[in-house]
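Issue 218. Parser rejects a valid record. Input:
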Amino acid sequence: MYHDPKPIIAQPAWPDDLQRGDVVQFRFPLAEGESKGQRPPKKRPCLVLEIETKGSRRFATLAYGTDAQTKANQGYSIFVRRGGAMAAAGLTKPTHFVCARRITVAIGHVGFEASSATGSPIIGRLDEALIERMNALRARIHAEHDIAVERRRERDEEQRRWQREERDFRQRNRALRAATSPTKGKASA
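Output the parser choked on:
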């Protein structure tokens, strides 16, 4: 009989349970392209803003969580300050989630930090009032995205129109020059 030296360990079910409004522990990168000698990003609470499926893979969009008191990005923040809301979210101190700082990662990303007690990085969930705030911010973010996409489409369309007009102008100009240029070798009467 063969005994595998590595025991079979059941995979935790948290990826299937993950949903918008959950608070997870994640190693959120602080800057693009961190250099190799640096410590890995610290584990911090992050808010799950979106869950998407592309093909057979699932992705989560996470908002950065911090307990630092700052006035930056306040229009895109969700503040968790009350005791009941903090307990529901699994937080030990007042935290705000900066929805302007987002990252989209695969559900199996190594940055998720599972608790040794539960085997899951999910530490809590926003209460109903904060879920409403999150949904309002999500709607705003989606609307701004749609506006930006439409602006790019209009700009690209206008550039194509200008290129067509410039091409048409050159063709008309060549035709005009050909029609008005004097014929060589013919005497005028």
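Fixed in the parser; the record now loads. Residues 137 and 143 are 10 Å apart (CA to CA).
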